[in-house]
User: Which sequence fits this backbone?
DNA sequence: ACCCGGCTGTCGGGTTGCTGACGCTTTCTG
DNA sequence: CAGAAAGCGTCAGCAACCCGACAGCCGGGT
C-alpha cells in the first residue's frame, strides 16, 4: 500500500478529514501497515496499548470477554473507521479486545504521533472528542438495552442496526447466529427462537444465513426501551 | 458563592486543574451557579443540552430510564466532579439524565465557553480526553458486568465500589436497597436476598441501612468476570 | 409524642432464558 | 469431490430472577 493510498484512507475517516493534504501525507508516511487474518487478534483487553488503528480494508470487531470464554461484542467496524482510541488517551490498558472478522489491513498510529497531532491540529482534537462522544453514546445505549429489553427486543434492535438504513426492506448478511447471540448477549438457541418468532409474525424474513426486514416499524417498537 | 470560591471548586476538578489561576478566575467569572434540591432533575436524557456541569456541593446521579419508569444508575458523582460533557462535544442530545440525590450546588459552563477554552488551553483538551476515556471505561465495564455477572456478583461489585478503598473494613451508607437495585439493574427483593446471602457467608455485615465489608477478597472474586 | 410514609425482610408463583443434547444442512478444505 | 467442520433448528429440563403481596420497623415531621 503506497503513500498516496494510505493518505486516502486517512482522509476518509472522521478523525483525519479536515486537515490539509500535506499534513495528512506526512502522517501517512509515519504509519505502519499491519495485515491481520480472519480470526486473528489485533489487541487484547487489559493489556497496555500505545497505538491507535485505522481500518483500511476488512472488518474488525471489538468485544469484552469473560474468564470462561464468553464474549460480548460491542461494535463491528468497517472502513472508514478508527478504533483503539481510548487506551491512547491515558496510556492505560485496553478497555476491550479487537479481532479481525475477515482479512483486514490496518494503519497504526502511535501514541506520540497522535498526541503531537492533537496539539498542532485543533480540528483533530475536536474530531477525536466527537468520536469519543459517539463511543460513549453507543456504549450507554448498550447498557440501557441490556437493562430494559428482553432478548427479543435486543435481537430486533440488532437486526435494525445490521440492516442499517435499508430503507424499506433490507439485505443479506455475513453474521452467524452465534455471532448475533454475542452481540445481544444471549444464548445462540434463544436467539434462534427469537428470530423464528419474529419471522412467524411477519416482521422479518429469515432463512439460512441472511435476513430481510419486512416490518421496520414493528421492529423498532420492540426495540424501544 | 463568591468568585474565589468558584475558582477553588474548578481548581479541584481534573478538567480545570493545571491551568493558571488567572484563566481559572476568568472562567469562574463566567459560570452560572445553580442550586438543585434533592430529587430534582438537572437535565433529562434525549433533550438537547449545551452546558456542562461542575459539582461544587452535594451529590448527583446519572442514569438512563425506560418508558415504564425503570431506571439504571450509571454513576453517582460527588465533588470534585464534572458531568454532562458528552452532549457538549457534538451538541447532540443528552445520553443520560442527571438528578440530585441531595441538595447540590452546580457551576454551569456553557458550550461556547468550553470550546473556546479547548482551543486556547491545550491542557484542558487533554484533560477532557482523559475524562472521556474514564467514562468509556466505566460504561464498558458496566456492559461487561451485565453480560457476565449474575445479580450476586453485580451486588458484590457495587458494594466494593461504594466502599471505595475502605482498606480493610468499610463504612456505613446512605443508599437504600431500591437504589442499590437500580445500580445493579435488579429487583429490590432480589438484591435483598443477595445481601443476606453475602452476609450469611460472612463476606459482609449488613444490617438496616449500612453495610461493612468483611472479606474483601471473596467479594472481589464474586465480582470477577 | 404520635402517626404516617418509606424501607426492610420474606414468601410463592410465574417467566425468561440458559444448558446440554441431537439430527440435519451448509460450507470449507485438502 | 469427499470428508470434516461449522452452522441451523428444535426440544426438554432447570436455574435465575422478576413481580405482587404483606408484615414489621424505623425515622422524621408536626
Assistant:
Amino acid at each position: 500500500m503506497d503513500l498516496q493510498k494510505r493518505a486516502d484512507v486517512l482522509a476518509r475517516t472522521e478523525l483525519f478529514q479536515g486537515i490539509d493534504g500535506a499534513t495528512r501525507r506526512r502522517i501517512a508516511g509515519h504509519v505502519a501497515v499491519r495485515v491481520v487474518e480472519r480470526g486473528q487478534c489485533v489487541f487484547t483487553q487489559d493489556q497496555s496499548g500505545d497505538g491507535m488503528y485505522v481500518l483500511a480494508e476488512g472488518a474488525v470487531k471489538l468485544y469484552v470477554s469473560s474468564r470462561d470464554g464468553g464474549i460480548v461484542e460491542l461494535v463491528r467496524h468497517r472502513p472508514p473507521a478508527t478504533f483503539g482510541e481510548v487506551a491512547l488517551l491515558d496510556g492505560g490498558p485496553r478497555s476491550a479486545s479487537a479481532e479481525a472478522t475477515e482479512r483486514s489491513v490496518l494503519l497504526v498510529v502511535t501514541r506520540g504521533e497522535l498526541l503531537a497531532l492533537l496539539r498542532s491540529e485543533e480540528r483533530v482534537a475536536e474530531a477525536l472528542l466527537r468520536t469519543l462522544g459517539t463511543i460513549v453514546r453507543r456504549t450507554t445505549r448498550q447498557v440501557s438495552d441490556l437493562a430494559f429489553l428482553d432478548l427479543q427486543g435486543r435481537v430486533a434492535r440488532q437486526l435494525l442496526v445490521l440492516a442499517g438504513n435499508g430503507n424499506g426492506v433490507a439485505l443479506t448478511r455475513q453474521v452467524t447466529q452465534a455471532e448475533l447471540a454475542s452481540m445481544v448477549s444471549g444464548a445462540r438457541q434463544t436467539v434462534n427462537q427469537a428470530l423464528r418468532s419474529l419471522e412467524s409474525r411477519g416482521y422479518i424474513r429469515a432463512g439460512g444465513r441472511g435476513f430481510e426486514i419486512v416490518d421496520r416499524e414493528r421492529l423498532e417498537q420492540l426495540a424501544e426501551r
